[in-house]
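name: query_chain
kind: protein
chains: 1
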Amino acid sequence: MIASGAFGLLFHRLAERLVSARAAFIGLVIVSCLPVFLASSFIVNPEAPLAPLWVGALLAVLAMRDRDEAYRPIVAGALIGAAFLAKYTAILLVPATLAYVVASPGMRRWLRRPSFYAGGLAALFVAMPVVVWNILRGWPTLRLHLVERAGVSVPVAGENTVNQLVAASSSAGASVLQRLDRVLVGQLLAYSPLLVPLLLVGLVRAARRARVDDRDLFVTVFTWPVLLPLIAAMVTMKDAEQHWTMVAFIPAAIAAGRWVDEAWDRARWPRVLVTTGAALSAVLFVLANVHVHSTVFLDLMPADRYDPRADIASELAGWDQVSAAMTRAAGAAGGRVVMASNHYSLCGRLLFETNDTPAVYCPTARRTAFTFFDRQDPPADATVVTLTSDIQADMPDGLQDRECSLVDHVEIARGGRTVANYFVHSCAPLANPSRSRPIASR
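structure:
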């Protein structure tokens, strides 16, 4: 929520400096109503801190155009480095910034000043903790993103039918054209079919006027050199996620706001798209919150028309019961005990709900954050209390050598109907610890 609020304030400031107060407000309405930005305002993902840091870096670069203080490139570099700490996507700010400095007549003076290159050192210095961590461990995150993610199947959290629809609109496909088609369809859904036309028109207009208007050059340079590499990555990688392109559409929303402002009185359809798109996003947001926090819609829906696997609220409900069952099973096990699950989303939720007591491991074949924290292979001498569900039903890959038994079944109900089932297993310590085999991450 804090990151979302900071993003909104910084976005309006950037748009106001680039265009006008009214166009900035329209742009803020557009970007706030894009589904992926709306979701990131309350879902924990790296884009939440990345977005305000990205806009802060753009503001710092823009200030270099209008102001002459030597410290300004250093501030811009520090913000780019901080954005890199949030997500590696921020590396794309470096070539985009260089392109803007070279292409903009008002920015070229910085190429002759030492402080501009000091800004690059500032970015590297702030980003250094992540760089050093990777160097000491053989660049595991680069292997994850550039090698492993390009070869694995789509890891859809929950594997419910809605997520499978999202996966189908992502990067699965036999040919490059098929994958590109699916990515573009996914982008249309992720950014709203009603609002995407405004973004595209704004970008096209900015590109056409980039040679004569520095504001349009700014929008163009900080959109296309970011968007195109991300689209290429999404086409290449089988587990691409549609929100990867979020930051590329930040300048596009400003361009869209400017165009709608200019066309407000002479063309009807931009007004219709922005007002209808904003209204639809607002209605869907309200309806989703009502559904998550109440059973009003469940009570109205016939049982034979309701599929709990297609309802994300089913994955959010009943975790107080699940964590209580896991805690009881851990207390009954005796001796050294750890917890585990079979999917990174379940592992993360279990860690949060139990406050990591006992310690939570994630013994899956695929590399996850738990791998980097040495929480992939459960201790051989510990009992492993394991959580599975009716959606993620298989036992974790790393427990094949243990004897496991079902000790509890937690049935979650909402609106008088069962929406999820969780199963608690107790897996005994290895009788011969030397038999333990570390999981080979793909």
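note: The longest strand covers residues 404-414.
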